[in-house]
Structure prediction request, 212 residues.
Amino acid sequence: MLLSWNKLRKYKVQATDGVVGALDGVYFIGSRFSWMIQYFVVNVSEWMQEKQVLIPLDIIGRPFRDLKRLPVDVSAEEVRNSRIFTDENLLGTKDIIGYTLTALDGGVGYVEDLIVDDSTWEIKYLVVSLWEYASQKRVLVPPKWIDEIVSEDRDIRLNVLNSQLSRAVPFEREQSVSGEKEKTGDKTRNQQTLVAAGVQRGKIPLSRVDEA
Prediction:
């Protein structure tokens, strides 16, 4: 199922022997068609001090939505002894949320949230707030619409026009993003896909290829 990052970040991390910390972010890499989460950043307490550790994807389970828990297949002590958070040279939620977006014909808005598939941990969409609408219209933007990410400008460059963004799948904060919504979004997507040449901090070029 698809889940908003702004909701997921409120979840507690559930080790095999109890709650051990809280989510603070994720790090992900780009692939040909998507962004895939690689690590979860977790805030944990140890000896009355807070620290951040990295939890790899392979020990993460499916979220317990009712309990707002994210299970991990290790003990609380193993989580606390995980690698301390460092710059992994990957792109993270704190690097993307808040970035502006620039279409081929000018600026369009900013990233407000991410939509994550909790069965695969793929980032399916960026939730973008469009500037031209007084009512703060939000739309879903798939990673394949991204041409490059320029960290020094805190800007995401797109390979679509403003008019295509305005016709993208709308998003409301409280709605669930269903498979039907995804199919509807396919109809408005540009007839191009993107190949990630290397997702890391800095200028991230992406090459265009035709869809089969």
Observations:
- The two ends are 27 Å apart (CA to CA).
- Residues 2-89 form a domain with the SH3 type barrels. fold (CATH 2.30.30.240).
- The chain has two domains: 2-89, 92-210.
